[in-house]
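Notebook B, p. 112. Complex prediction, attempt 2.
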Amino acid sequence: MPPDMRIDLEGLVSGPSQVWGALRLVPLLRAEPVENLRLHSVAYGDAQRSRVQLTNTVSYYSYIPHGFVADWNRDAGDRQESAAYGTQVLAKDGAVQSMPVHFHRRMTQKQGKRRVRFLPLHLALEGYLALHFGGPTIAWREWSDRVIRHGLSPRTEAAYRGAVVPGLQDALRVFEIHEGQCGVLLYTGDTLAAAFVAPHPDDYRELHPTLLLDMYGELVYQYALMMPAVQEFTVHLDADRIDSLAGMRTAAAEQSRMWTRFHDTVMANALLEHEYTAERAYQMGDFDLTRFRPTFKPGEENHIGEAITDGAGRIAYLKTFRLSEAQIRRGYLLELLATHDWRLARAAASIGATSEDLRGRIRAAGFEMMLREKEK
Amino acid sequence: MAAEDVLLFVNAATASTGQREFHTDAAEQAISLEFLHEYMLVNYRELYAASLALGINDHNATLAIRRLLATGRDATAEQKRVEGALIARRLLLLPPPRVFRLFKALQRDGVNNRRTRAIVRDWMQALESPAFHAVKYRSGFKAGLKHTHTDIGDGELRDFLFGPLQRKPYTTRILETWRQAHYNSGALYNLPYTVAEGFAAKHGIKREVFLSRIGDRMTPLEKLRGGEEPLDPLELVYGTAKYCGPPAPWLTRLAVRILAMPLDERAASRAKLTRSLRSWAAHEAGELAGTWGRVTAVLDDSFSSFGSPVKRRRPLAVAVACHFLLEALAAPGEYTPLWISGHDDPLLTYPSGATPLGLRIIDALETAPERIVVVSDGWDNSPPGLAAEVLRVWRERLDPARRVDVVHVNPVFDAAALDVRALSRTVPSVGIRDAEDLVPLVELAQFAQGRVGLPELMRYLDGRVRRFLGAS
């Protein structure tokens, strides 16, 4: 039974946002860095496509521009491997430049005693792709032979690389990283596109440019392309209520608090106030690397992602991916069918529709191959 | 309205060099400048010409000169007379490479009226050593002569430029050295660096050998740019290297050079560098030293003060130079520098972090100064817009009598807004290129507030133009 989780950004305070065109970046600041966990990136060169072997029979193909390495328990020995300074290309992977396909053994792989390599976001996306990957658990008549035998394979989803999202490169370049900044929330057209949190400000500084190598959903790309420039939330001081410089300082601080409150409760609520289904991918000391997915709700903001949480459930590392509407529908349909034991009629009845409607929706979602043709 | 337009143009033409900045690229800068120049030329021709006396930077001065010379037919005789004098005077202040580039541009544009010819001829004939310029800037020199049909007589210089190169030996020393350098690799070390470089390649001399021997023929600027053997900033102060051309604003250049050094090196020679910057600032301040009273500076060393790869750390260097200049201008012991990042050592600053400009301005106001100078690119983002609000409320509620004089100098031209980014409507913002111009810019800033109208501005400009022309 997978545990439910909520995203708990305790210890992280959202700072004043910086705007570039349709993009808004909200820094997340930590007063104290998370101890005993560091992240750095491993560049995988220009391999066009990479293959990740998950089990002996299932493989995951994707363009993977970079991987993250997490070190934990830095202070308890293991010093040589704990430096997080500059992008490190490991000798083992040094030859990838000329290879068209890079072979990663697993999504998360142990590299040394207290160090694990994982592929950012791919971990989360793979969790989404593998959702009910085996297909119907009971061979009802409505499902095709193929899906009974082979499951949903192959499942594909497309995403945009950060470098092609219009303006993202400039937005990241001109963004002024705050002192103590450990994360960022990226908005396009003032809808949340992605969240990224690192355990330590130095890690964040190093990994800030890797946001450009990440994947972004279709919606993020379209909003960045088409939305007009967003407004800055500028400060307003009430002149009538200020009669000294100290008063001005208090009023300014109050304005900052107001922004933080507004941001956390209004702008980021779709991410923070959701229940997620979490799945642990790796355990490292006190920290858990988990990937999570939302309860898919068409028409709403849905984020999948991965996180490293400490024993108390606080976020040390977080990366999210915003699903497009079509992706949400696919997830929703699969979940719907699975909760009703893959019985089409019962699933249709539960949402107040006819079987025929549901068939139409399954077809429209791109799962036509699941349905048996003769059974009309 | 006119006063505002003029100041907007002067701001842009002082700060922008048409190069890439932190937030805008070179193309955007060029388009915005193009528009402003055209607008000024069409609407306020006299003021446009007068801006040549206002310390607009060399890039914009040549743009303005090109435009003025190309559109002579739209000007009256009186306008032409003043323009001619201003152009001639400004040409003398330009570094020779820029002047020759301007001549080539005039040739390309096909601008060849009587006035242009006269101005070019006068400039060329006023050269102290035409032979030196003919050798060092051969193609530009030739282009200028040919384009304006300037007569340089029948001497050997004419043979050098236009003849079939049969004369030997030349009696002029530099021409003779140039001739010998063709076959004698020892002679080339007596030529200007840029010319010698070509001969060194011809003779296959190794770069290191060449650089070690040519050293003292390099101008300080060439040394600065050379990179391979970067100049010790202290040498700049007491430098002996030959430099032809107008005196350069060394304070800002020195700051640029110092900021290019690694932090460790800066820390090691901190005392010496500080001393040299101080002495240079005292020199720049001149007789105004100590006359500004109690001064507080808010200096921007946020990440955006990095500038761009082509203007590395320029905004930060301007801030550092302004810091030392203000220290010299303020009454002794009455100067408070406030860096955005909270660091307090100007020599060890580096661009980093966000820009909490508003909070720093509150800090500055708390020091109860007579004058606040803000040196920043105006991208106030932590929280956004606080600086504007603080200044507004300060002016409205806490200091309606304007006891504190606040001025914002901005080293970055914001191409999208066609102006330097202002902090607030209540505080004047002026563009700055070199910290040395701080004093006249602060003078100019009073017009930027809109309190003083066009007639006063015209009178002020007249004064500046007279001083500018009289100084020749």
